[in-house]
Amino acid sequence: MIPGSGRVLPLRVPVAPGEGIDSWLEALARRNGLSLRALLTDFGLPTPSLTSTLFTSVTSSQLRELERRCQLPDHHLDQTLPNPVLPLRTRQARGSRYCSDCLAEREGRWKLVWWLPCVFACTTHRTLLHDTCPGCGCRPRRLLPGRTRSHPAGICTTRRGDNPPCGTDLRITPANRLPDTSPLLSAQRWIDELLADPDISAAAASLSDLVHLSRWFLHALPEHEIRHLGTVAATAWVERPTKAPPDRLAPVNAPLTAVITHHARPLLGPCHDTAIHRIQQLRTHQGAATALHPADMTMENWKKLSPRMRGRFVHAADAHLSQLDRVRLHSGSPAARIPVPGDAPHTSRSQRIPQLLWPHWTLRFLPPQGLRVDLFRGTAAALLFLPGASSRDKKALLKPLHGHLANYVAHTLQVISQSGYEQVFPALCRIADYLDEHGSEINYQRRRTLIPADTISEAAWQELCFRTNTHPGETSTPAAPGRLLPARRYLFQLLTGADLTDAQHALAWKSPSDRTRYVNFNLSLSLPQRQALLQHAEELLEDLGIDEPVAWEPPEACCQGLALPGPRLDDIDLDTLKRLVITEGRKPSDAARLMKTTVTHVRLALEHIDQGEREWARTTPTSAWKLRERARTVLTASFLDREYTKSGKTLTRIARETGISRQIVVEQAKATGLTIYYSQRPVPMDESWLREQYLTHKRSTADIAAQLGTEDETVRRRFLQLGIPLRPPGVHSRTIMTAKVDKSVPRNIRAAVEGTLHGWLRLHRFQIAMALPNLETTADYLGTHRGALVHQFQRLESDLGHALFHRAAFGKPHRPTRHGSALLRSLATDDIQAMMHSALGPDQITRMPDAATLARAAIRLTTRQSPGPLRPFGDDITAKRIRITGPTLILLRDLLDHQNEQFYGAQIHARTGIDNGTLYPQLKRMERAGWLTSRPEAEDSWLARAPVGCGPGRRRTYYALTPNGLRAAAHEVQHHKPRRRPAR
Questions:
Q1: Is residue 622 classed as helix, strand or coil in its secondary structure?
Q2: Please, which pLDDT band fits residue 90 given cuts at 50, 70 and 90?
Q3: Pair 130, 254: CB distance under 8 Å
Q4: 3-state class of 525 per DSSP?
Q5: 8-state DSSP, 52
Q6: What letter does residue 10 receive in the DSSP assignment?
Q7: What pLDDT does 404 receive?
Q8: CA nearest 83: which of 105, 108, 115, 44?
Q9: Phi, psi of 257 (to 5 degrees)
Q10: Nearest alpha-carbon partner for 357 in 330, 375, 333, 331
Q11: In CATH terms, are 741-746+769-861 and 886-975 the same topology?
Q12: Three-point CA angle 373, 377, 383, nearest 5°
């Protein structure tokens, strides 16, 4: 073989059944006449000192390369590596156990399972595995096998120092035989079943627990439970290591592993009760179990146990835990577990838990005596935050919702425990688990945020009571809220589960008597009234965008099989209860005593009993509402229109005929929108006729009133009653504003003249203006002002929605845009000209300009007119006025910004960017006008600026603003605002 060539090996060895990769590679090296290290180097594999490193250092790609070079099927070598989830031998016990008979039969090939710490016996040959070589006392295969060419397989090649290899033949090591009925052999068969289980993750968890329980078993097992396991096991137990450092496991040989596995089997098995009983036995043998984890188990081993195993230890210690921890750790049920540090399921659970425990579960959990029901409901709901909490700080856990009950929790737990109803604790844990797994149909946190305190208005409460034939109570006032406040509390508590003993609520009870009134109010609600309140609650949720039921509780199946102190809600005879409370008028407490149940049970059951309809006196608000309801049924809009409007009956007569008081008749008539006449009835006017005359024929109200023989204002009031829009008074009602042009007229002409005044005049002037070069010549020709034309043409452009012409500039006449040219073409037709002359009349028509007028206008367009003299400043400014241009204005602003400084031209040029050819003439002009003073640069400064070897150059002239110049500059800057560009 050529080392490192990467070609297929000519001499190959098949993988023996159950063989590890270390043994196969060793056999392959022997077949090819190489040392194991040389073979590993050729394969590109690491050459570690410890054999166990091979199992963790070989990568998947290296395995595929080995299969290619040895012509093995794909993934065939995967079976030579242990599953990564299974535990290997501990750090202190690296090496492989072995069965001498198996080594002899397999020609020195080593099994993979011998590397697992949980494998201690060979079920084929019924022997305990060997841990060490009988010759040198070392653990076989701890170091990478060497001298494979000089020693056959199955020979111990361990060396100590410079000594030669041991050379002991491990195949002939005397075996430790076990009888067929040995419990140790049975324990190994159980281990083999775990390893053969397709669900290797469950087996790995059990085997890992076995490793980390070993130290505890070395201290916890009583010696009398070892004797029946045989002499080898008893001897190994006497010689067991018990003083290993606490941070690591002591090496455990095969007999000790067999003993530990045999006794750990009940703890690791599927039967939870058997495991709990065995843990309690062992911990009792050690002494009082005051901690969750045993005293002889290191914290490192405790943390590495699986959650199931730690939960079993917690369940076993249930009787020794405080009530708070029993709830927090689920210790009273098979679901017992240690919370993960930092895990806070109560945070998400707060959305699913109300402040008060659900009514049905309150009934099931409440002991017959010793606790107030309202405080118990709040405390029981608070206890639902405890299961799974990693913190023991109950005040911090309960602060968000139940901070006011933190001191009451311990008392509640104590009463429940002393009453003998300890199964309430696992029941609370089951409900918490149900909420974590399935959630809740109600998000209580959202409801606590969105639902307001005024859950029902006073008007809605009165309407609800009237419809359910109940009394709404007196009118609510801040001093005497009546029944409205309890109704709001009832709805708020129904929707949010709020604890009204919590002072942070706006609806909290102010005093014990306040709570008593609420309890009495709850008992007084009739069944229809409760159903109406439930419907109102549904509507409130719908208005808030909450798609949830009004109320919800975890199902009864959550706590199936638990003996709870309270009865179920339906465990009561409602007929008997109705007879005692409704018919005989007994108190709920008396009814509870007679029916041998609790007052809470009676009060909850009364909510499902119909108390019957009550008859109210005529003077009560309920009777008055019924009368008004009858009026709404009888006095409909059609009835009043027939009897009052068409038949002409008076309201007094209608009241007498119907038996309803006139006051209610008047109220109902107003509610239906009926027009009530307190004097002679008006002249009848047909609505369709009025609409036709006013809207279609555009007749005025005065004409219509004259035809009807009434007043103009009467017609206008009738229009308002019928909802007919009145035309605005004044110009908007003129014919010219309401008239429509025939649709054959071009659209741009119609847009300019319809619904507006002087539209034809604007079109006429636009036609003339486009014949002249600019608006100045047009204004002179028409005898008007340029500003008037600008306003008129802007209005025309606004009506048409387009710019009609490009504005003129000096030497450049204005010209129509595309839309303006289209308008001029429309105006040039004979039909439009005839319509224009008819609309304007001869006094407003101006003929088009002739050739001479156009020639004069063209000359004026290209001729500049000299500006007139400037108007002087006022008396407070004696400086002469100068003409202000754009650069002048920039210069003045800069001078005002530096008014207390002397300057020269180059400074101004650098600051403003004004061209020197413009700047210096401006400065001279301002100096002549008295705005500036000037002086030449001082001679020493002038000479100092001269470069070396050159002349000083041009001498600077410094300027400064005079007082009059400062005032003049401020005046001009203030009065020369930036001009707006004309609209296009």
A1: helix
A2: very low
A3: yes
A4: coil
A5: G
A6: S
A7: 73
A8: 115
A9: -60, -40
A10: 375
A11: yes
A12: 135
Q: Which helix (H) or strand (E) holds 816?
A: strand 815-816
pLDDT of residue 250: 54
User: Closest Cα partner for 88 from 118, 63, 60?
Assistant: 118
Q: What mean pLDDT is predicted for residues 55-77? A: 88
Instruction: Provide the sign of the torsion angle of the four alpha carbons 687, 692, 693, 699, taken in this order.
Output: positive
Name the amino acid, one letter, at 106: R
How far lies 418's CA from each of 9, 449, 949, in Å? 79, 38, 115
CB atoms within 10 A of CB 539: 10
Could you give the CA distance from residue 680 to residue 696 in angstroms, rounded to a whole number? Answer: 31
Q: How far apart are CA 32 and CA 38, in angstroms?
A: 11
| Beta-bridge mates of residue 155 | 169
Q: How do residues 671-730 score in pLDDT, each as one tens digit? A: 888 888 776 566 778 888 888 888 887 777 777 888 887 888 888 888 888 888 887 766
Residue ranges of alpha helices (H) inside 595-677 are 599-606, 621-634, 637-640, 651-658, 662-671
What burial letters (b/e) apply to 652-670, b meaning 16+ CB within 10 Å?
eebbeebebeeebbbebbe
Question: What CATH architecture does domain 741-746+769-861 belong to?
Answer: Orthogonal Bundle (1.10)
CB atoms within 10 A of CB 873: 16
Give the per-residue pLDDT at 183.
Answer: 92
Which residue, among 39, 51, 35, has the nearest Cα to 148 in the 3D structure? Answer: 35
CATH match for 886-975 among 1.10.10.10, 3.30.565.10, 1.10.1060.10, 3.30.70.20: 1.10.10.10
Look at 342-346, 575-579, 952-956 and tell me which has the smallest mean pLDDT.
Answer: 342-346
Q: Could you give the CA distance from residue 189 to residue 184 in angstroms, rounded to a whole number? A: 9
Query: What CA–CA distance (Å, rounded) separates 193 from 114?
Result: 15
Domain boundaries, the chain: 1-81, 317-442, 621-671, 687-726, 741-746+769-861, 886-975
Length of the chain: 984
| DSSP H helices in 150-297 | 183-196, 200-220, 231-238, 254-268, 272-286
